[in-house]
Amino acid sequence: MARSYVARSWSSHPIATSLLRLWLGATWIFAGWNKATDTGFLSPGSSHYIGTQLTGYLNSSPISFFLRHLIEHATLVGWFVMLSEFAIGIAVLTGVALSLAAFGGFTMSIGLWLSASWSVHPYFLGSDSAYAVLWLVLLLSLHQKSGKSGQRGSLRDSRIIPDVTDRREVMRLLGVGVAAVAGAFIGGTLKKKVVLPVSGTPIVKLADFPVGSTKNFQAADGNGAILFRTKAGVFAYSAVCTHQGCIVSYSASSHLIECPCHGAAYDPNKGAAVVAGPAPAPLAKIKVAIAGSNIVQL
Ligand code: FES
Description:
This protein is of the alpha+beta class. The chain folds into two domains: 2-189, no CATH class; 202-297, Rieske Iron-sulfur Protein (3-layer Sandwich), CATH 2.102.10. The protein has helices at 2-11, 15-36, 50-57, 64-72, 74-94, 98-115, 128-143, 155-158, 167-189, and strands at 145-146, 151-152, 202-205, 214-218, 224-230, 233-238, 249-251, 256-258, 265-267, 273-276, 285-286, 288-291, 294-297. Strands 4-5-6-11 form a four-stranded antiparallel beta sheet, with no helix packed on it. Strands 7-8-9-10 form a four-stranded antiparallel beta sheet, with no helix packed on it. Strands 3-13-12 form a three-stranded antiparallel beta sheet, with no helix packed on it. The longest helix has 23 residues, at 167-189. The chain is elongated and about 70 Å long. The N and C termini lie far apart (61 Å). The protein binds FE2/S2 (inorganic) cluster. FE2/S2 (inorganic) cluster binds next to loops.
């Protein structure tokens, strides 16, 4: 029964629409799988962490005001993005709520274009704008009259809001949701174990880290940290804001460590003392030292 539904959804579209479905559906599932198996994507402090990625987009994105709000709930946003990618990919390949899935893919691609790819020049080197167009073409093709008969695609496929009075449609939507959660769960079980650095682990070679340098690294507690080298020596602070836990970063222009969420700023040359914003305490110190030719964690 379910197979015939999927088979019918493939046979009812022209080859161009099917090609788009195949490519976009497989790519979106792969994107969700990539995140589900990434040890860092949902781990604050990792360079792959969704919050770290969002923070990196703030300087160039035209929707930075919106991204700033998302950073406060970065882990939740990460889950939402991963599950949505799975759900959209599965829906497109199975033909469940096709128009809604295409609309979701289009919206997601526009969001990625305005954040992740906005700084890519020339624009055609970034793939998100191209994906937005592909999703739009798929969406339009589901609504377009086709063939000599001039017939529109099936009503079911062209409906953006699924018919929730149809019990079978609701069951199919639930099936897509369950499959998306299962994909995220299976991916999670295949994640590589994170090996946390132990005392004495080198962070960087001294020769590669001259006075005036800064570097992000993973502290022994698994969270991110920022290493500094000044004339006074080497020192490091946790990258976790003491206000509500957003990930801070060093600004070379202000010479301060800044939090993107609510504007806290810390002075790295004064023990990471709070110099602006709502943070209640300085950043936690991370013990580091020069050992031979390396800078190491203690
Ligand atoms: S989390 Fe609020 S200022 Fe950093």
